[in-house]
Amino acid sequence: MKYPLNKLITIEKGVSGDNLAGSSITTYSEYITTYANVYVRSGNVRFNESEELIYTTEFTIRYNTLTREIDNEYRIKYNNKYYSIIEIIEIEPRSFIKIIGQHYAKR
Amino acid sequence: MFIAKSKISYPITLASDETFIKRSLSIFPTENDDNDYIDSLLESATDQTEGYINQDIAYTSNEITLDKFSGNELVIKQGNLNAITSIINNDSSTLITSFDVRKSYFDFTISFNPAINCESLTVKFTTGYDVANDIPKGLRQGILCKTLGLYDKTDTYEAAWKSLCDQYKLL
Fold this sequence. Notes:
The complex is a heterodimer.
Chain A: E1 7-18, E2 24-47, E3 51-62, E4 74-78, E5 81-92, E6 96-106
Antiparallel strand pairs in A: 1-2, 1-4, 2-3, 3-6, 4-5, 5-6
Chain B: E1 3-9, H1 14-24, H2 35-53, E2 59-76, E3 81-89, E4 94-95, E5 99-103, E6 108-127, H3 137-152, H4 158-166
Antiparallel strand pairs in B: 1-2, 2-6, 3-4, 3-6, 5-6
Helix pairs in contact in B: 2-3, 3-4
């Protein structure tokens, strides 16, 4: 196998809506659990009100009729952390998809 | 000797080997999107393996018609005999029931008692396996290896497929 798909991830689908107070809210539900190749590409520090660590991570998964639907409305759960999706690349047509996700940690 | 063949069923399916296939391909058990595709690859891998070993693996019906048969023994060079379906003397349209079959891995011999002398004889028989558990383990593993390679579009499993199947190959 070209990419060792040896980490289990869950991809959740987000649906936007309003809460009772009228504020916009996104509700996530499990979409697919699949094996992925996970590669932590970088970790950066961002200074806002507090210091934030930003981890950019690549998830390579198989292409199929479910995974090809994934876009920025989805998020990834891996090791009990949530990653927002910032980019999706079909690295091998109809074979593998690379999802680039970001995870924030405040300190 | 022309043998008319038609496939009845393929013994190795995703249902028979799902755990091994999905684990080997890193497909989570609840991911069923490619199930039909994997089943078609298993059939293709079975066909390719049959071509490699020159014997039927899929459960196959066969029909052979011999002109001017005379004798008490008929050797048919087809391995993996499953069962004789019927032997018909076409001269008199009679079903021949008095025979014995000696089966070896690469061929089988039908012994007639009494001997037969006719213008045309039709033998129908089945070859291959109708359930996965009857397939020799090495051959089954070879077909699974071939399927993994077809799914991942890689030659990585080719050597393993050949070495597993070589022992069953009719030269």
